[in-house]
Design brief:
Helix content: over 70%
Shape: elongated
Number of domains: 1
Largest sheet: none
Number of strands: 0
Mean pLDDT: 81
Distance between the termini: 7 Å
């Protein structure tokens, strides 16, 4: 049981890290559109694609975090 709890905690952390990386790119893209010198999408369409991707991935990762958390608490 302790091993499952440790694994589920580690996987939840990893999924959260993936979410953070995706949102980092979206935020950098938004800053680039304001004229901030960064490597990111050059237009609003690229930013919208990044936001949609980040939202979908966030929802997917949250579902995985919940499922792994339930598995780890068994």
């Amino acid at each position: 049981m302790e091993v499952r709890k440790t694994i589920s905690t580690s996987l939840g952390t990893a999924f959260g890290f993936v979410i953070a990386l995706v949102w980092s790119n979206v935020v950098l893209g938004g800053l680039a559109l304001t004229g901030a010198p960064m490597t990111a999408p050059k237009d609003a369409v690229g930013l919208v694609i990044g936001i949609v991707t980040a939202l979908v991935l966030t929802i997917f990762m949250i579902v995985l975090i919940i499922l792994v958390g339930r598995w780890g608490s068994k």
